[in-house]
Amino acid sequence: MTIANSRAWQALEEHAAAMRGQHLRELFAADSTRFPHLSLEVDGLLFDYSKQRLDAKTRTLLAALAEERQVKAWVECMFTGEPVNGSENRAALHTALRSSSTTPLCVDGHDVMPGIHASRARMRAFCDAVRSTQWRGFSGEPIRNIVNLGIGGSDLGPRMLTTALSAYTHPSLRVHYVSNIDAADLAPVLESLDPRTTLFVVASKTFTTLETLTNARTARAWLLSAAGNADDAAMARQFIAITANAAEALRFGIPPDNLFEFHDWVGGRFSLWSPVGLSLALAIGMEAFEQLLAGAEAMDKHFRTAPIEQNLPMLMALIGIWNINFLGAWNLSISPYSQSLRYLPDYLQQLDMESNGKSLTPDGTPVGVHTAPVLWGGAGSNTQHAYFQLLHQGGCLIPSDFIAFAESDYPLASHHEKLLSNCLAQAEALAFGNTHADPLRACAGNQPSSMLLLPRLDPFTLGQLIAAYEHKVCAQAAIWGINPFDQWGVELGKQLAARLLPAIESTHPDESLKTDASTAGLIAWLHSERKPA
Predict the structure, then answer these.
(1) 51 an active-site residue?
(2) Which of 138, 164, 220, 329 could pair with 397 in a Cys bridge, judged by C-beta atoms 3.0 to 4.6 Å apart?
């Protein structure tokens, strides 16, 4: 039986038919207690979902769907190391990476917790050495710049958080992130750096990723050309690898003592809590990094134990399913009212769309309903002058997540209050619109949104926030019956790129290349344009 034929789903369909005609103005007018009944505070994080197009009955019916789909049991399997990544027969233990517990947690009969704590201790020792200038480059000068070479999960999380926590960064260390294989990403960074004081962190789970390894080889050549006879010292002092494939890293030339390993039960887009976060830890210090882990661990405990209707990530997941599957809203706008969090929508795009952008269950059965939303967004208040016009008057149903902080991370007189007023005003305008006499100025409203308010932008609260979104994605996957931990569509593109590369690198078109007429024509055009004058 598909999910759409289940009893709980059918009950929600009947309820949705009545709710679709309701306007948020009417829902608020009918219930003066709507805000306290449709909001939740967890460890200082306030989640207000009263501006969503739902009511208490909707929440009860959604909770019944989660119970019918046995989401809590699935969550427990994830936390205890069961192979919830069924297609690859692996556990998904990103939660263990931020655990402070010493209680054994076994995967294939092996307790993973001692290794996690030992890895964290190694990260602390290395961060302390670099930040205190004890760790120096081949010339004996202290490290001043760190370049993280990675892509996807080895880039987006650490990059986002390094920018978000810029108020906490070391005053004498600059951390750069290079992900794109396009030379325009790496070349300007290298041009601005001194090879004697630059440390490269190569982050790749497989250590075979085309983009990352291409950038790493170029960076290695740049460094060694400056090191001259000190090339061994340069590799020993200025190249670090973070990988689950130690053999490939050693083959590249990374010394064994410079390897930080993590396991295949850590998915790339869930890996920032592992040594993949080393560049972030170098930027903010290991104490702040461990506060990030503590915030995530606090959200883990809440998600694992709280009842469904008082469970913040579970409510986020269920509201998303309500909007996508019952109201027909297939987009989600993310608007952090924090310039420091400007990369959060990019990070959440991968987390949500790569995890849940699937239409089949693990056994190959069609899900039968839409899954992941098209997620996009940007930092407020810039977004108000970009795409909010579409939200207000474009006629499309597009839910929004607003994220804001009571205190600013960079306090300047009168700035933060104006920022917050814009955030609250946009959520109000989207919900209630206006009834202007001029139809061109009228806004229909009834655009749903949730508001996440946090006390301040610090490592602990960011740990809470990111973990909440992780758990939202996983809970939705459990309800839809899909595997959020594989990404075979991404793998297909990689395979095709590897097949086409020799034909593009060649000085002449490859007549034997088996491909479609369009791709063959494009390659032929490229060859014609790249011929010497």
Answers:
(1) no
(2) 329
- Catalytic entry in 211, 297, 354, 470: 354
Domain extent at residue 503 = 491-529
Is residue 236 located within the same domain as residue 336? no
Residue 505 in tokens: 């690198």
Residues in contact with 248: Cβ distance below 8 Å, sequence separation at least 6, in sequence order: 206, 207, 208
Q: Are 266 and 401 in the same domain?
A: no
Residue 5 included in any domain: no
Q: Which long-range contacts (CB under 8 A, 24 or more apart) does 363-369 make?
A: 365/2, 366/2, 367/2, 367/3, 367/480, 367/481, 367/482, 368/2, 368/3, 368/4, 369/2, 369/3, 369/4, 369/325, 369/480
Regarding whether 111 and 248 lie in a shared domain, the answer is yes
What is the per-residue pLDDT across 303-328, written as a single tens digit (0 to 9) for each? Answer: 999 999 999 999 999 999 999 999 99
170 is annotated as an active-site residue: no
Per DSSP, the residues of 223-278 read: HHHHHGGGHHHHHHHHEEEEES-HHHHHHHT--GGGEEE--TTS-GGG-TTTGGGH
CB 490 within 8 A of CB 153: no
**pLDDT at residue 14 in the model:** 97
- Asked which of 264, 289, 314 is the last residue of a domain, the reply is 289
Instruction: Considering the candidates 110, 418, 436, 494, report the single residue annotated as catalytic.
Output: 494
The neighbouring-strand residues paired with 243 are 261
Which is the catalytic residue, given 191, 385, 511, 514?
385
Structure confidence by residue, pLDDT tens digits, 378-413: 999 999 999 999 999 999 999 999 999 999 999 999
Q: Are residues 399 and 424 in the same domain?
A: yes
